[in-house]
Amino acid sequence: MKTKFHILLALILFSLLFSCSEDEIPPDATDEASLSGDLSLKNFNYGMIKSYDSETIFKWNELLGSFIDEKLPIPLEAKIYAMFTISMHDALNNVVPVYETYALGNNEVDASDISKKNITQIADAAVSQAARDMMAALSPASTVAADALLNEVLSSIQEVDLKEKGVEIGKLAAQAMLQKRQGDFPFLFTSYTAPSSEPGVYQANFPPYMLPGPVWPANAVYVPNLGDLTPFGIESSDQFMGGAPYPVTSREYADDYNEIKAVGCANCTARTPEQTEIGEFWIENMASSINRLARTLILQYDLDGWEAARLIALLEMGVMDSFIASFREKAEFVFWAPITAIRAGDTDGNPETTGDATWNSMKPTPPVFEFPSTQAYGSGAASEIFRMFFKKDEINFSVTSPYKLPGVERSFSSFSEYSTEQSEARIFLGHHFRHSVEVGEQHGIELGSYVFENNFRKLKKVK
Fold first, then answer.
1. How far is it, in rounded angstroms, from Cα 445 to Cα 36?
2. Number of neighbours of residue 67 by Cβ within 10 angstroms
3. Average of per-residue pLDDT across 256-282
4. Per residue in 234-262, pLDDT tens?
5. What is the per-residue pLDDT for 101?
6. Are 282 and 422 within 8 A, CB to CB?
7. Which pLDDT score, from 0 to 100, does residue 218 have?
8. Which long-range contacts (CB under 8 A, 24 or more apart) does 18-22 make?
9. CA–CA separation, 187 vs 185, rounded Å?
10. What's the pLDDT tens digit per position in 313-338?
11. 60 neighbors 138 (Cβ within 8 angstroms)
12. CA 369 to CA 323: how far, in whole Å?
């Protein structure tokens, strides 16, 4: 009788130990049984992983942001965020291999010496060393601050062997990333001459403007070959291409033209105060904005460090690949910007478009081809990754825009609403026609789904 009681008690304790509420374990839309590959998780104990929080990951994300947010051209900022966050994810998953990695393989990792007691020390060392090395390589001006934070983290680790092992893992993760992306070309402005003066063809004939750094030069476009860059998480830059800009002589084009002409200009009376706020709010760089939202939701759902690193890395991968894929489409169509189209509206061959030679967009038009909208592409991808990660669309959250509209907060009840508002902001800014943002958002959703389903998947457990 006593034996039966002990067995029953053991079963109850076992059940309690390995069960927790939905809020305690981050939902994972990937079914472990469906994963492919031969990577295996050795000596896995979710309770051990759960004991590692996201504090150190947050510190490094915030430190990087203080040096690059709104200080670089948007695609370059996105690429730095992608390489940085993926490296931290790779480092963690070479401490204990819970998920697939990107640059530093983890199929030979044996985590048998890692326990709930020592996991924070080695994980902090690995994450911090990887983050410091990536910051020094990608943002040299941040090296002193990165060294200071690294020293702060490492000085708190008492176990010398754990510290040294974590540091080595972090160094290897950063080295692997830098080596894998060593063939990437620089992001530069390129002198542009239009292939023709036909209606619909992009013309670099609108005023340049000042970034936080260099002047965007006249008669130039920014990194028009970005679509040739090797993607991070999708198969190819043309993977999601489909559709095209509306013909300039079509009714659909005229509808989009007249809409943006009325609500996207510098002093449009038809644009509501809220639409103006939306445009100004979402002009902020995408990678940093999405990173902040991810940190908000990580705290809201109490995700552990492994899930936090995975979510942020997937998002930044999706954002960067959205730039690559959208720029590949842009180069295919070389479609003109609304500022050019509206100034030439009387000569475009469409009787439903009336030109205005003095028309200006609400905010200066960036020197990139118009179709499709990259912001819509990236917001669609990020929203889909959020949806798949949390297994639902309806989540209440709020976001801020500290660099553009400090003190203003926008609230949402779903990721779909969040994505659509960002997309429509490009209309109110006068940068993109409605068809461009709708196609961009849809392609981004497809890209986000692919990135989530094919990267950083949970490893199989050893039976």
1. 23
2. 18
3. 97
4. 999 999 999 999 999 999 999 999 999 99
5. 98
6. yes
7. 76
8. 18/46, 18/47
9. 7
10. 999 999 999 999 999 999 999 999 99
11. no
12. 12
Tokens 């970034």 locate to 211
The span from the CA of 244 to the CA of 228, in Å, is 19
- CA dist., res. 37 & res. 459, Å (int): 8
Dist CA 313 CA 23 (whole Å):
21
**DSSP 3-state percent helix, strand, coil across the chain (nearest 5):** 55, 5, 40
Write down the pLDDT at residue 387. Answer: 98
* 138, two tokens: 């990608």
Give the burial class of 370: count Cβ atoms within 10 A of its Cβ; 0-12 exposed, 13-18 middle, 19 or more buried. buried
Give the tokens for residue 219: 């008669």
Count the alpha carbons within 13 Å of 362 in the hemisphere toward its beta carbon: 28
Q: Distance between CA 395 and CA 386 in Å, rounded?
A: 10
Q: CB of 359 within 8 A of CB of 343? A: yes
The answer for residues whose C-beta is within 8 angstroms of residue 32's C-beta and 6 or more apart is 458, 460, 461
**Phi/psi at 170 (nearest 5 deg)?**
-60, -45
pLDDT band at 99 (very low <50, low <70, confident <90, very high): very high
Q: Are 450 and 377 in contact (CB under 8 A)?
A: no
CB 222 within 8 A of CB 368: yes
Buried b (16+ CB within 10 A) or exposed e, 192-228: beeeeeebbbbbbbbebeebeeeebeeeebbbbebbe
Radius of gyration from C-alpha coordinates of the chain? 24
Q: Tokens 């860059």 sit at which residue?
A: 229
Residue 4 tokens read as: 């039966």
Determine how many CB atoms are found less than 10 A away from the CB of residue 238. 13
Measured in Å, how far apart are the chain's first and last C-alpha atoms? 32
Tokens of residue 385, six digits:
């990754």
What is the rounded CA–CA span in Å between residue 362 and residue 158? 56
**Mean pLDDT over each residue of the chain, to the nearest integer:** 89
Q: In 3-state terms, what secondary structure has residue 460?
A: strand
Which residue has 């068809």 as its token pair?
435
For residues 92 and 309, the answer to whether their CB atoms sit within 8 Å is yes
DSSP 391-455: T-S---EEEEETTTEEEEEEEESSHHHHHHHHHHHHHHTTS--HHHHHHHHHHHHHHHHHHHHHS
What is the helix (H) or strand (E) element at residue 190, kind and residue range?
strand 189-191
Q: What is the C-alpha separation between 210 and 225, in angstroms, rounded?
A: 22
Torsion over CA: 242, 342, 190, 194 (sign): positive
Eight-state DSSP code of residue 361: B
